[in-house]
Amino acid sequence: xxxxxxxxxxxxxxxGDSAVIKCTYSDSASNYFPWYKQELGKRxxxxxxxxxxxxxxxxxxxxxxxxxxxxxxxLHITETQPEDSAVYFCAASKTGGGNKLTFGTGxxxxxxx
Amino acid sequence: xxxxxxxxxxxxxxxxxxxxxxxxxNLGHDTxxxxxxxxxxxxxxxxxxxxxxxxxxxxxxxxxxPKSPDKAHLNxxxNSLELGDSAVYFCASSQGDGxxxxxxxxxxxxxxx
Lengths: 113, 113
Known about the structure:
The complex is a heterodimer of chains A (113) and B (113). Chain A is mainly beta and 113 residues long. Chain A has strands spanning 4-7, 10-14, 19-25, 32-38, 45-51, 56-59, 62-67, 72-77, 86-92, 102-103, 107-112. Helices cover 0% and strands 54% of the residues of chain A. The mean pLDDT of chain B is 95.
């Protein structure tokens, strides 16, 4: 089955700096890669996703890049703000898999003032 | 206007008891899921139903039994609760079983003593 590794497990940045979270996946058939943000005590919420026919996608301060050959994908947050502090999860799934998401282990991002 | 709701929010019970968690979505989605998030925040899918049909059934003890009376509801019944069942259980739904955003409920924190 699919295995998703995520690094780092914790990340601390100064407000205004950029943050990068990296994930690797094992199943070359995976073709959908969403990112979820989970604030303390809250539910996970989708912030951005990318499909395998696209190499990069951007939405305001967040962007995701995908390298299919290396089976890597990354989340980039620019101009970080305190409200970006949360746990971020990457995930992967493949067509025909019933939208079964395999999640990474999460990254605790802390944005310090 | 709650999209995905779960009851109860907190559940404290003793080992050996049987308990149920209920989930309802008012988004008109066809697919619903149960996830378990352990104390290390690891998020893992347990079950998924599409149009009331079980489509994902991960390696979960058979003490866990999902039931979908209709497309809008997915319940989780747990028999003979064990200490290791303590976790946050999230229900989620999506438009279908393809690459669709999954909307999570608020979670049910189960504590087994």
